[in-house]
Amino acid sequence: MSYQSSASSASVSISPIQQMVASCSGAIITSIFVTPLDVVKIRLQAQKTPFPKGKCFVYCNGLMDHICVCVNGNSRAWYKASNHFNGTVDAFIKIIRQEGIKSLWSGLPPTLVMAVPATVIYFTCYDQLCTALKARMTDHTQEAPLLAGGIARVGSATVISPLELIRTKLQSQKQSYRELTDCIRSAVEAEGWLSLWRGLGPTLLRDVPFSAMYWYNYERAKSFLCQHYNTSEPTIRISFLSGALSGSIAAIVTLPFDVVKTRRQVELGELQAKNLSCQGSTFKCMSRIVAEQGFSGLFVGFLPRLIKVAPACAIMISTYEFGKAFFAIASMHLGVWSWSRQSPELQTECQNGKER
Question: Where are the Solcar repeats (predicted)?
Fold first, then answer.
């Protein structure tokens, strides 16, 4: 099936369920390609600075960041560097040779339980919101992706944030579900319902500006490349290049927010793992980074973030667009097949009605 053939099916709208299936497929494919990069990064990080028990670190599967808690100090944990690595390529080779290729996807299944639903909510909401906003913002349709991207990210992050908190507690304390329920109930009684969204602030600080810029630049880049290649609908290459470019721009602009978010999330994760109250704020965290490292501290990790974000955005959006095109073409062919199954008398009657 040609991806570009979706041009003839542009007028065929797909259902939200089909959008959800397309985004789910894209999320799984993205995580399969991107996760090995982060597994190697964490192994190298653990080699440089060993993780003590209770220490938190950030794990990314290409879809979203997760806080992981070091629950033991032995070398059998997947995030422990069992060998000495002399760089990224050496780490890839040694992990595959000594632990098997499946080790490159260590830690992936538990995080997909939340990353895939979050991605499905995010992409489906974006498409629905963008279509609705374009219908209303007739004179400012180019700004619709900006608003839709930001709003969709707020919605998905708000839904997933309490689940991520529960996942961190389950991982760090090995509690039963009944014990976890009691723990959450006591936290709500002591600090209110907002305590379940404790890490939402730093997440929104980075993700909302990133999403707004990403979708705005993606739609503009896609339109420009479609005109450049003289095509009415994007090919896989156009979607891939547009996703990589827009993701890179958004990653560079929001890098200071990413540094603050990562530091704050690690601090919150370690406090929550020990059932300690979380003091301070995101602004204080930013001030502390500037005081300790200067303003350059807000731009640490520029290249690693770019290497991770650009391919993740490119793979996710190109597979998502391909999935939508597939369903659009399938719906069109199904409609043609249904029409051909109708009786000749009904076809003639419908045709005469159109001519009138």
Answer: 14-132, 140-224, 234-326
